[in-house]
Protein 1
Amino acid sequence: MTRREFINTMNTGITGLALGMSGRSRAGEQPQSLKNWAWMIPNRRMSEDDYKALFALMNDCGIHAVLPEIYNGHHAFYNSASHPVEFDWLGQILPLAKAAGLEVHGWMWSMPCNDPAIREQHPDWFMVNGLGESAGEKPAYVNYYRFLCPNRTGAQNFIQTTVREIATISEIDGVHLDYIRFPDVILAEALQPKYNIVQDREYPQYDYCYCQVCREKFKTQTGIDPVELQDPSQHKEWIQFRYDSISNLVKNILAPEARKMNKMVTAAVFPNWHMVRQQWSVWHLDAVLPMLYNTFYNAGPDWIQQHTQKGKTSLTSKTRLYSGLFVPGMSPDDLTNAIKAAWAGNADGFALFNAGSLKDEHWKAIKKLNIEREREK
Ligand SMILES: [Zn+2]
């Protein structure tokens, strides 16, 4: 053991005590360097100077990477040739973020498609639920839940084109896949009353994809037509088929497209991934950012720690895990506790949703926490 390793090992112990962590680092293991992220939503009202100030503040507070939302399932906020362009927000902020020393990862919606022109030209690209209803015509829960089918070649190409466009932007560091999943077959607990629904089991109107292509593909594999299943929620192969449909799209179609241009590939993922058919642990991405939005699940910071740990354990590759934290409604103390919980769960860092939700006090709290952590090293 070198002196440095020895000191690091010692210090991991001290940090663990100071932050009330459970000891996880094994002796001799190098503590990993942390990386922190912030999602960003387009804002026309912010000037160049506003962004310069924000990026300087982020850098000062220990944020390393930003995730601007540059495609929202309909409009592009970059100079796109394939989607209607709302305004070239990326063109405005990319040089400023890079000048401030931040990585920039293009955040794109993946499966939902809310462009009426696409809906009209390609009604067959959309997922179909257990009642035979198309997500293009009758989306579940909210009017933007118009998910494309991951097994339709046209839909695959459509999503791949967005990845290609973003990966082609030379200063971009990575492509960030959001909504890379099925609609929630069961919503998070705290969201059900919001939509005035009770989901005590899987109901067919929220269960996808029973389109002709998926039915035939599954029938070829197993001899079973999924519409004939008595209880699809209990049929292991049918469940796995849906996981594999998204995994195939990510691993064989989207990630290679970004990697061709030497870009990182990351994804925003669910802790309760079964509910959205999103088996991200096998995707081998550069990083996953699980949305550990505890209040959606009526849970406290312990839950963030638990799911960070669970996620880290489930990853079969060198994929990094950054705990996604939902800042709206959090006090600076809540945020401090959430970050400590992510660290205690052995996260590689945290990701804030979203930069616009943080007040000065929140930034101060993050800076203080990072300084404390640095000192303890
Ligand atoms: Zn389908």
Protein 2
Amino acid sequence: MRAWRVNTHGGPQEVLALEEEVPVPEPAADQVRIRVGAAALNFGDDLLCRGTYQLRPELPFTPGLEVAGEVVAAGDQAGIAEGTRVMGVPALPAGGLAEYALADARNCYAIPPTLPDRDAAAMLIPFQTGHIALHQRGGLKSGETLLVHAGAGGVGSAAIQLGKVAGARVIATAGGPEKVAICRELGADLAIDYLAEDFPARVREATGGEGADVIYDPVGGDVFEKSRKCVAWHGRILVVGFAGGAMVSAPMNQLLFRNYSLVGVYMGEYSHRDRPFLDRVHAEILALYADGRIKPLIHAGVPMEGVPAAIAGLAGRATAGKVVVEVVKA
Ligand SMILES: NC(=O)c1ccc[n+]([C@@H]2O[C@H](COP(=O)([O-])OP(=O)(O)OC[C@H]3O[C@@H](n4cnc5c(N)ncnc54)[C@H](OP(=O)(O)O)[C@@H]3O)[C@@H](O)[C@H]2O)c1
């Protein structure tokens, strides 16, 4: 089969190789083989190529963390029938940037006929992450103020939409006027260019000096540091990711006297620990999509050949929303 492979670690444009004769992967007893219709790229794909992601599969491997397609083979304990259309998180090393990917059955979710592969692939990680972060971890309440960083990004664009659905007042930040305009189109009540403006001052001004109740932070670094200046009393800063590169820390005495919480969010662990909970999350997300209340923000569809440049663009802040790879069916 045709698959992108990483044979040695490095930048995606240096190390990704499109190989034509990769063996079709065989599912284990609790896995399925998916004929990939569409694969969505994630920031993690860049880190996977570089060997700096939290998962470090043995070389060679195929990246790709998010797919939609059809189950064409299933292990005898998988419990998913062949022919079922699913969206899923692939099991590395048989990732999604290939004609066929493997996925653990617990990381697959059935999708209705009305949901095209392109949208399904682009929805799974951003909307599950956003839902878990805002509700289960952040306890977001209607009427509260939610601040979403990198609001035009993959996970940020989903968090804006889910925040509005939850009845929050949403403030978004993004880098540059085009991305700021996208945040507004997604429903943000206020959008701030955090490369050009002092966002903590703008957030305090917009909240009568109180600050944001919940801060969704997939960036870290300087953005996290500044977030601590505009978090409300009883506020929750959701630590979602480190797209800015820098790990962060906060002085504990500030948590105490400002009475706010730092809350970790790791979507990838939930399928191991509480799949029934994720089933409820998935059902809610599908219902919101069916009602037209949420929609994945898709930056572009690219052919298989465009993958290395697309991953580099994503990691280099050149994308708004998800990049979806249209994988040619075998
Ligand atoms: N915790 C979880 O369960 C979970 C799940 C999914 C993803 N994540 C994490 O969330 C983060 C975002 O992932 P994503 O796939 O949705 O990516 P993305 O948001 O589509 O892209 C990252 C965005 O981060 C912003 N950014 C700020 N500083 C940056 C820098 N120095 N370099 C690159 N980007 C920078 C950019 O937006 P601006 O140009 O607007 O600043 C960029 O578009 C990643 O760290 C990822 O690992 C975590």
Protein 3
Amino acid sequence: MKWVNHEIVTGVIVYAVVQEPLLALYSMAGAILPDKLEGNPRSGNYWSWRSRHRGWSHWPMLYGLLLGLQLEIMGGGKLSSLTDMLTIGTYLCLGALLHIAEDALCGKVPFITPWQKIGVKLFSVGSVTEYLFAIVLVLVCYIIHIQFVIE
Ligand SMILES: [Zn+2]
């Protein structure tokens, strides 16, 4: 999925759930984190980048572990001075996990181990179908959001 669609879909999903623009913004930063960790495919050796593409940086267990650790620290009430940082980190991890789920809809990503990849190819990255898919997801979130907010 293109970064613009990762940002929009992730931000809209998180906003629809938590209804906090700032938290949606943190998740939008996390929505490009897995690709950012891989580096830029245009700088350096493309094939070196390609061999790392959707590798450990797209391993959901990594972000799940970081998310769990942050929630454990926040839930315990320890280190309350770090609550803001932990909240940002939590939503960065949620954004990264949504990025990986979104990538799993247009190719394969790691799952249990970094080298065992799963996914479906509903559309090609950058295709018209991807943009239509993103629009439909946004509309579904909007419809679900107004159903719960208005009632
Ligand atoms: Zn990706």
